Amino acid sequence: PADASADPDWTAGALVGIVNGVYYLQDMRRVRRTPGGVEALVKQTAQLDRASIPGIRVVMEQEPGASGKGMIDWYRRHVLVGFNFRGKPSTGSKIERAGPVSSAAEAGNIKVVAGGKWISDFFDEAEGFPIGHDDQVDALSGAVGELARLDPKRQSKRHEPWNDRTARNARRQHPLRDPDDDRHWDKDEDT
């Protein structure tokens, strides 16, 4: 952030899949970037995901009002051209939207796939929810909500559970660095 004392929201995206009613959190991206930097990251992430997960859907939270519709239109026409992409208006509070995730987790139906450096930050946020930052929890809630809408016949029966990425636009964003290259990650700004 420009002001070292500021603690703005993050832009967060979750890669989540469902297999036999169990949700798998495969990856989480959380950054503070400029709008152009976020666009580049969303596009790069969608390209990487599509290369390894054919048929992946990209769903982005649509903020209220004309500006939210305009952003979804921009992403559809300029950033994610050729992707299975749609905006999803959010409804209810973040606490209400996290209800199904909480219920699924209590039932043992949320699995976090090991291996990412993002996991510790995700659990810190989830354990503190709803106090403090909630961007990763909201991204996971959006992905689970989207996957729960699927007809059970369309849910994966294979053990390749990561089939949906939900990207959330936050209020504050900063310049992009390659998320897969540790040399470009500033631990104070990105996780």
Task: Give a verbal description of the structure.
The chain is an alpha/beta fold. The chain is 37% helix and 20% strand. The chain is built from 5 helices and 6 strands. It has helices at 35-52, 65-79, 94-106, 119-128, 135-148; strands at 11-19, 22-31, 57-62, 84-89, 110-112, 164-168. Strands 4-3-6-1-2-5 form a 6-stranded mixed sheet, sandwiched between helices. Helix 3 packs across helix 5 (135-148). The longest helix is centred in the N-terminal third of the chain and has 18 residues, at 35-52. It is globular, with a radius of gyration of 16 Å. The two termini are 14 Å apart. Residues 157-191 have low confidence and may be disordered.
Shape: globular
**Structural class, judged by helices and strands?**
alpha/beta
Strand order of the largest sheet: 4-3-6-1-2-5
CA radius of gyration is 16 Å
- Share of helical residues: 25-40%
Task: Compute the number of helices.
Answer: 5
Q: Distance between termini?
A: 14 Å
The overall pLDDT, averaged over residues, is: 79
Topology:
Blueprint lengths: L10 E9 L2 E10 L3 H18 L4 E6 L2 H15 L4 E6 L4 H13 L3 E3 L6 H10 L6 H14 L15 E5 L23
Parallel strand pairs: 2-5, 3-4, 3-6
Antiparallel strand pairs: 1-2, 1-6
Helix pairs in contact: 3-5
